[in-house]
Amino acid sequence: MFEYVRTHQRLMQFILLLFIVPSFALVGISSYMRGDAAEATLAKVSGQTISQREFDDALRDQMNKMRQRMGNQFDEATFNTPENKQLVLENLLAQHALKAAVANAKLSISDAVLHQNIVSIPGFTLPDGSFDTVSYKNVLAAQGMTPLMYETSLRHDLAQQQLVTSIQTTAIASKTLAAQVLAITTQEREIQAVNFKASDYAAAVKPTDAMLLAYYNKNAAKFSVPESAKIEYLVLSADSIAAQIPVSDEEIDEFYEQNAKSFTVDEQRRASHILIKLAKDASSADKAQAKAKAAEVLALVRKQPGNFAQLAKQYSQDEGSAAQGGDLDYFGKGMMLKPFEAATYQLKLDEVSDLVESDYGFHIIRLTGIKPAAVKPLAQVKDQIKADLKKQKANKKFSELAETFTNTVYEQSSSLQPAADKLKLTIQTADKIGRTPTLATISNPILANDKLIKAIFSDDAIKNKRNTEALELGGNTLVSARIVDYKPASSRPFAEVKDIVTASVIAAESEQLAISAGAARLASLNATPEAAGFSEAKLISRTQQGGVPPMAFEAIMKADTRKLPVFVGVTFPGQGYSVYRINKVEQPVQDARQTAEISKQIENVLGSEDLYTLVEMLKQQGDATITKPFVTPKAAL
């Protein structure tokens, strides 16, 4: 089972991506609502198209999430490959195929579940614990979205997650399979080792000049210095413009007064409810039965109003709130279905409603809190207003200054100083820039940009040290750069690297001596088994590797142990050779907890495989077609 996971890494990567790309937060969801029909189509499935823009958004989202996850270790070049782009495109096909399946299955998400997901978004909780509706709306507005647009897309995402979860959690691992996997996992092998270290044979190596020259010539690439450049670069961005723009207190006061509604927190109400579900297409008999059941529960609530939470836990069929005693937290207008909202806003504090019918069934609602509408004081939002005004002014001014920037770096191409002086920008420098990103440049998105690197290392830029053209990097950002000093690729002379070559030859030759000695000892042991010279015995298993290197561990666990002792030889590149003696094999008694854990892992793998099979079937049914593949079909998923 675990070998399956190891050998099907691409499938598992696909399943992982299925959860990385969907957006359940407020950032990166605007592509749901954009019209991309006029753009190049990369793929089609279930009557839906995947545009270049949608693909670019998905790839950028993946990059950003990986960059946040990996920090300084993130290497964009590792992910910006044809194979990874193909995987992202395949994932988008899967997303659209699942979206069509959700629509066909008429899966839906209740208002309560939607509300719980929204109020749990990090960063939108006020000091008193309530949801910051104003900030929520402002963030959406900054992305050109309304709450209704976002909540519609979130409903789709959650419904899709509902389908995915229903497939992944239905796999069942047989007891026999679980027992077999657990036996393999917990099996213990007693081992001893004898090591043949390359360093122990170094004194025996006497390299000649001929050996050194031969190694130098054969490995010339190891001793070459790649081309590099010291550059100057100038960046025009909305941020750099905003930093120069003054905003007066009068402007802030005026903006605050004119946009008072934006800083008003609408009245919010907190309610608990008990839901008796009813399908939209339910028969009259089913509806009557559900209404009768709801009426019975309402009667209990009327008799025991103080026990509403307990009754909600006992009777409510809303999975999202029943465990919390029916609590839906605070919400404002427009966040619940109209019948539910209308009933809630008619209640007095602690009052219980009559039966309220919605698309999801019958509700019994209890109003538990009221927060009156309030306006945030100017002092609280002054910094935000100032930043917003700066940004607005900068965005308006960017187009005007962008033309000046572009013309100046082109017309006065021998220096960036004229453009810097005109626009009050600071020239930045960077040294040892190469065609391939390094740890120093990866952390700077501008220096790691492919477009800029290609422009810097163009023939004209290298030969004449002229400014590159103004390059648009997106997000209202322009950059131009020029080479100050260029060093072409070169080979270091033999005399300069002779000591390094000598050390390399000695290391290589001593490694071969160690391997030869180890292999000879292994042959001797296979002919005449003995334990002399081996280390102290220790037990290892697939869950406790005991510090054994992975290469050796894999060889030890694969060894045939029907006849003991068994000897295994392992070569460690650059280090030497080791011989391992397997003395005995033990099988610990299995316990219920371990069996349950293994069963769960197996079910996760089987569930992922079932999901992959479903997605492939949905893609086939939806006539999935990739019109512009990044890799040949043979190399695709």
Model description:
It is built from 23 helices and 19 strands. It starts with a helix and ends in an 11-residue tail after the last strand. The strands form 6 sheets. Strands 16-3-18-17 form a 4-stranded antiparallel sheet, with helices on both faces. Strands 12-5-14-13 form a 4-stranded antiparallel sheet, with helices on both faces. Strands 8-7-10-9 form a 4-stranded antiparallel sheet, sandwiched between helices. It has 4 domains: 2-174 and 598-635, Triger factor/SurA peptide-binding fold; 188-224 and 493-586, no CATH class; 228-248 and 380-488; 267-372, Chitinase A, domain 3, CATH 3.10.50. The protein is flat. By secondary structure, it is α+β, with helices and mostly antiparallel strands.
Which tags fit this structure?
single chain, 637 residues, alpha+beta, Triger factor/SurA peptide-binding fold, 4 domains, four-stranded antiparallel beta sheet, 23 helices, 19 strands, flat
